[in-house]
Structure formats: structure tokens, C-alpha cells
Amino acid sequence: MHTPLHEPCASWGATLPRIVTIVSAPVANTPSSSAPGHRPVLLAEAVAALQPRPGGRCKYLDGTFGGGGHTRALLEASAPDGIVLALDADPAAIDRAFALRRDPGIAERLIPVHANFADLAIVARERGVVPLDGILLDLGLSSFQLDQPERGFAFRHEGPLDMRFDPGQGAPASDLVNTLPERELADLIWRYGGEPGSRRIARAIAREREQAPIVTTTRLAAVVAGALGGRRGREIHPATRTFQALRIVTNEELTALEAALSGALDVLSPGGRLAVIAFHSLEDRIVKRFIERESAGCICPPEIPVCVCGHRPRLQKITRRAVRPDATESDANPRARSAILRVAERLTDETDGSTTGARR
Ligand SMILES: C[S@@+](CC[C@H](N)C(=O)[O-])C[C@H]1O[C@@H](n2cnc3c(N)ncnc32)[C@H](O)[C@@H]1O
Asked: How far apart are CA 344 and CA 22, in angstroms?
């Protein structure tokens, strides 16, 4: 059945071009817009992309609440009746979301749920907020997590080698470090960290863990630094890529992202927007390919002359090119430097049908 296009949740929604370069927005990229501890990245751009408007009764899902910077901005821009369903895999982030509910004007409009964003479609249906006007994913970890040695994300501070976003789910990173065969460990560090010295690092870890299991962040960091030698000129700490690889695998981050993107298509309203902020190339490639594939009519291999796939476009690209932080934001917040925002809009069912099988 054809679903009518909902009224866009933005005062400029009727005139916004279908493909835009997002440069201005109703909120500023200021640290004061977030809870202390995490400076939201591409705040103005991401919020503008979701087109919130006051009094529109818009419904959003923030899949990565973190410190709540993006959620708060969405609530402010969609007051007095916009709703945000805020998820986070980290129970500490959800505690912060419940604390934010104490703010006047927010209580009834913020729904915090401790959940993995891989399940966002299920949670959104359970909470009765489908269809959604916008979904935001701001990937990776928050400064809260990085700044707490006991979470095990930081190689500069001693803590247990944990790295789980949800400490109650799955196994800590130390399990990978102490049990994976050397070759698999090297492949993991290469594939998810892009670390050229992955084989040397895996060999050093294998040797070291024969003495005693590696269970702290600083011990692993020292083993990695020792394996890579004291080469000068490195811009980043020698353990950066290894820690990134272990974190991605420990939290099954790429699998969760794929599930979230697919779920988002099912719960976005026609005209609803999906905005994803990625921090490294593996994540961004998944987002980019997903948007390209879901924006395409036919996805048959080029050698097939007539479409047989019947694939329908369900998305429209909104950002022609990825949006990156400007120099001011990158200078003020080094964490923002690698951020890449991509935005797409859910098409109407009518649009889906009219372009079925069209070759691109
Ligand atoms: C970069 S922070 C988000 C910051 C937030 N946008 C803000 O303005 O404060 C990413 C958050 O996403 C959470 N996270 C990462 N992967 C997740 C997943 N698969 N499901 C739910 N939350 C996830 C992390 O626990 C972290 O709190």
C-alpha cells in the first residue's frame, strides 16, 4: 500500500534541494551543547541533516546516545513535542540519558533504552515510535569511555583489557589477545587496524603471553610498542591501530552497523532521514556502499543486458559527498578529524515502485 509522504520535520523542508551540501544548521558545534566529557562531532551538520522543526511532533532515534550532545540538540530543535528514542550499548550512557530526563521540558520527550543499535528496528517498534522521522548513528566510542581506565579502551592508562561497550555482553578484548592463534591475531590487527606491523605485533604478543596472560591495557601497549621498535616520526601512539582493531572485533562493530542500516530502512518514514557519522574507512565504506546500493534501481551485474534483479531504490542520497568537520572544529576537537557524515532520505513507496528495475 502506498504510504503518503509525511510533512517534513523542518521549517525549510519544502524548499531544501534533494541533494545538498550541509554547511549551516540551527545549532552550533559548541562543547556547551553536550554534557561535559564528550564533545559532539559534526553536531550542527548532523542535526540539520535530520531536519528537526519546532512543533512538528517528530520522532527520532539516536542509536549512540554517548554523552547526549546530539540527542539534546535534536530535542531542543524539535521542542516542544519532538521525541527522541535514545539507545546505547553502554549502561553508563543510559544512566546519563535518564539524568538528562530531569531537565524541564525533556522528561516526557526522551526515551532512554539500553540496547545495541543492531536491534534498533525491534526497539523502535516495541516503544511505539515507528515510523521515525530521523535516525542518527555517531559511531565508535565516547570520551567518557576513553577517559575511564577501568573500561580498558585507553593504552596510556592502566586498566583491565576489556573494551566492551556493554560490559555485560560478550567477552573482553583480553580473550582475543590471549587465545587467538598468532596468525589470526595478525590478520585481525591488519584487517581492522590497518597496522603494517601486524605480524611483528602478533609474534610479540604470542611470545609474551607464554610467560603470563596479557590482561592490562598498558602491558599490551608496551608489547606493541616493543614490537614496532622506537621508530621516530610516528604521528600516533604505536598501539593506536592495534587497540582500534581489538575494539572493533570485541564489539562486533561492523556487523552491528550493517544490521542497524538495514533495520533503519524498515522503520524510517517516507521522507525520513538517516545520518551516520563514521570515524574510519571500514565503517564509512559500509555506510557509503549501503546508501549507494539502496539508492540504485537495478543492481544486476553490468554484463546482464536486461534487469532481472527487481531491486527497488529505497533511499535518496542527500549528501553528494561526505561531510567533514571544518578546520575550526578539527582544531578544537582532535577526535573530530577523522569524522565523516553521510545522509540519505527514505523514499516514498510510490517512488520505489515507479523506478523498479530501472538501470542506473
Ligand atoms: C561517539 S559516542 C556518541 C556520542 C554522542 N553522539 C554525543 O553527542 O555525546 C558513541 C556511543 O555509541 C555507543 N555505541 C557504539 N556501538 C554501539 C552499538 N552497536 N549499539 C549501541 N550503542 C553503541 C558507545 O557506547 C558510545 O556511547
From this structure: 12
Asked whether the beta carbons of 50 and 70 are under 8 A apart, the reply is no
Task: Report strand pairing: 315-317 vs 132-138.
Answer: unpaired
What nine digits make up the cell of 203?
Answer: 609474534
67 touches ligand 1 (CB under 6 Å):
yes
Q: In angstroms, rounded to a whole number, what is the distance separating the alpha carbons of residues 342 and 326?
A: 15
pTM for the predicted model, two decimal places:
0.89
Radius of gyration, alpha carbons of the chain? 22
CB distance 66 to ligand 1 below 6 Å = yes
> Can you tell me the distance from the alpha carbon of 35 to that of 351, in angstroms, rounded to the nearest whole number?
40
pLDDT tens, position by position, 303-335: 888 889 888 999 999 998 999 999 999 999 999
Q: What is the SS3 assignment for 187?
A: helix
Q: At residue 133, what are phi and psi to the nearest 5 degrees?
A: -90, -20
Which ligand 1 atom sits nearest the alpha carbon of residue 35? 9
Q: Is 242 a pocket residue for ligand 1 (Cβ < 6 Å)?
A: no
Sequence-ordered alpha helix ranges (H) in the chain? 43-49, 69-77, 91-100, 120-126, 143-146, 173-179, 182-193, 198-211, 217-228, 240-250, 253-267, 281-295, 327-332, 349-354
Q: In which band, very low, low, confident or very high, does the pLDDT at 7 lie, cut at 50, 70 and 90? A: low
Q: State the distance from the centre of ligand 1 to the C-alpha of 197, rounded, in angstroms.
A: 29
Termini Cα distance of the chain: 26
C-alpha cell at 51: 531536519
Alpha-carbon span 96 to 69, nearest angstrom: 11
Write down how long the chain is: 360
For residue 340, give the nearest of 65, 139, 191, 52 by alpha carbon. Answer: 139
Which residue(s) pair with 153 in the sheet? Answer: none
Q: Whose CA is nearest to atom 20 of ligand 1?
A: 116
Give the residue carrying C-alpha cell 550493517: 258
Nearest-angstrom CA–CA distance, 135 and 58 = 11
